[in-house]
């Protein structure tokens, strides 16, 4: 086996916790939106929305921590046998995912502020996003952007997972850096 340098344990934990959260958010988001579209309301739809908002807002808060970690610590260097172009493509994809992991929840939060539908788990309200007025047309636009960003993020995540599996099967040391 090739010698590898892993990401620090806290960074790896944050990666897998957030992966689980985002992989929950996407199907829950699609499910609740399809129920709303079909005008199916009730305790299940309410619960899906509450969980989606609570987990989504937590992703936004954790992204602040993740960006601080990313800036303060340097990622372990790629093994030398990984071509330079592939390294740059991987970095580009990672940066794009960071951007979407900030923008997607921000637009969701802005949408529920404009709607307004800030109620979440246990009947608690999320804080309203500053400078966003209550306006149903604005909310509709913000939700459309939120949905488009979430779908784009899902495509990038699918590519990211495919690349991770490829590294796992090739045993080139990249997969083991994050486990
Ligand atoms: C990384 C974080 C997030 C992801 C990946 C995500 C993903 C999604 C997805 C896939 C949908 C379905 C879109 C559609 O079918 O058009 C959706 C809808 C929705 N999301 Fe999120 N979401 C995130 C964060 C948030 C946050 C932070 C909030 C609010 C606090 C939120 C509120 C909503 C609402 C209210 C809808 C339904 C919009 C509608 O009915 O048109 N989301 N989300």
TrEMBL record:
One of its GO terms (biological process) is respiratory electron transport chain. It is found in: Cell membrane. Gene3D superfamilies: Transmembrane di-heme cytochromes, Chain C. GO terms for molecular function: electron transfer activity; heme binding; metal ion binding. Pfam families: Ni_hydr_CYTB (PF01292). The chain crosses the membrane at residues 12-34, 54-75, 96-121, 141-169. Residues 7-179 form the Cytochrome b561 bacterial/Ni-hydrogenase domain. The keyword Transport applies. Belongs to the cytochrome b561 family. InterPro entries: Cyt_b561_bac/Ni-Hgenase (IPR011577), Cytochrome_b561_oxidase (IPR052168), Di-haem_cyt_TM (IPR016174). This is Cytochrome b561 bacterial/Ni-hydrogenase domain-containing protein. It comes from marine sediment metagenome. The keyword Iron-sulfur does not apply. One of its GO terms (cellular component) is plasma membrane. It is a multi-pass membrane protein. Keywords: Cell membrane, Electron transport, Heme, Iron, Membrane, Metal-binding, Transmembrane, Transmembrane helix, Transport.
